[in-house]
Amino acid sequence: MTEPKKRLVELGQELAKDIEKGKQPKLDVPVRALSNVQYNERTKTLELGKKSAERIFFNVGHVKKFVQTLEVAKVSKQLLDLGKHASLRDVFYMAKRTIPGSNINIVDEQTESDKAIEDLELITEFSREQLNINANKNGSVAGQVIIEDKGDAIDWSKLGSGGWSIPSNVEEIKFKKVSADYVIYMEKAAVWERLHEDKYWDKHKCIILTSQGQTTRGIRRLLQRLNQEHKLPVYVLCDFDAYGFYIYSVLKFGSINLAHISESQAIPSAKFLGITADDIEKYGLSKHLIKMKDVDIARLKQISEYDWFKNNKAWQRQFKLMKQYGAKAEIQALSARGITFISEKYLPEKIKAKDWLD
């Protein structure tokens, strides 16, 4: 019996014993909130604290989430028994059923089953991928790399304009050949397409990787594996805005909501490659700024007060300058200097000069 399946069986047995003893069944679920997340100065990653909340079956306020968690546990056990994997959307439909003798559905929206899966991760201490539940593919990568995936050899340098589509679960991928000096992750697929068309990865012996906005777990784990197993520096290319800064924060330190898996996701050595306030001045981008909205200002204030940023003088300077500008800037603003400016001048110059934020 696999360890994840064994833990699910044990969970069921523990609840059954409580019922047999006349005790009301309950689940202890670690609290997933900023109030229960701490920044570890030594590892430079976020960690989940020790606070937990009880989910009691005979409690009107708890019962729905209690039942939802057990339902996704049942689905996971079925998948492990069959040796099959399901998407988050599949699990939603598998869990969406009406409780017999009522008109109440166990779940009505996918957000409910998604949260129940995250709770199950915390309870079992296994990731959803280990529980045979995967997210959708969302990302592309190119470079002089050959991997083996499910017995197939895949060359990341020979996959046309689209690159290799990164799966949700990258644990079983084997690296057969990695010829690269560093990895650049960019939040925008359009920027990746620019660098890919310019063959930046070939000319500069690197790996280019993207998602569409916030990174998926599969992408973060793949980046971490390249960093840890092949000692490749990871550079993060994001917009000069609060959301770009947050994407970098998640890659480097871990996610507040997923602090329980920071060990397999965070990349403490990652560097922020751009855009910065200094780039705006250096490359004459001031005419291409976008005025900040109230939501941007609020997000910037929130990020500037994170423990892992508030004592960092270099980052506080960027936050201060952004507030003074009252504006943000996109990576694509560099196109005003020429369509290939980013690949021929901006990135090579910044990397050579080690002009990044840590």
Task: Give a short overview.
The protein is of the alpha/beta class and 358 residues long.
Question: Widest sheet: strand order?
Answer: 10-7-13-12-14-15
Average pLDDT, to the nearest integer? 93
Beta-strand segment tally: 17
Count of discrete structural domains = 2
Q: Work out the strand percent.
A: 15-25%
Report the oligomer: single chain
- Terminal Cα span: 44 Å
Order of helices and strands: HEEEEHEHHEEEEEEEHHEHEHEHEHHHEH
CATH class of the largest domain: Alpha Beta
What percent of residues adopt helix (DSSP H or I)? 40-55%
Main sheet characteristics: 6 strands, mixed
- Poorly predicted runs are none
CATH topology of the largest domain: Dna Topoisomerase Vi A Subunit, Chain: A, domain 2
What CATH architecture of the largest domain would you give?
3-Layer(aba) Sandwich
